Amino acid sequence: MEEKRPRLLKAEEIEVKIKKLYPKGAVALLYKTARVDMDILDETFGPAGWSNDYKEIKGNLYCGIRVGDVWKWDCGIESREDDEGNQKKGEASDAFKRAGFRWGIGRELYTAPPIWIPREKLTVQDNKVKDTLWVQQILYDDSRRISALAIKSDKSKKGEWAFLWQAQS
Predict the structure, then answer these.
(1) What backbone torsions phi and psi does residue 49 show, to the nearest 5 degrees?
(2) pLDDT, average across residues 65-94
(3) Which residues pair with 73 in a beta bridge?
């Protein structure tokens, strides 16, 4: 029996965030949300074909995703700093997304090139980037690796890319 494999992420399913702002530009990261994982699990295995569970082990929250009789687990980290009790929600979401990576959902994001956006292409105020960035286009090679990537900004001039990259062939 052939094993089902989650499809590659579409451009509109990938989010972009600034990891670090420097005097000459910013480093950006690509990521997926837990909702994308849920949609792809439903699409690949059917809504009743998978489930998940959480366990706390030595103070760390783990999420497991079950498909058939197989469980794949990973741990999350607190990712929110809003002091409104959402730290555990962020940790649960992170654990779920990491367990999704173990099933192959979004694993191609690890093949992304370093994303450097020059400061002149960004709107910076009070040392914070005000742009909303998104993946306009993404292409993959036969090995499921990113081969081309285009990122736009809501503040870009018409036709201008915040980041444009293509792998050397």
Answers:
(1) -90, 0
(2) 81
(3) 64
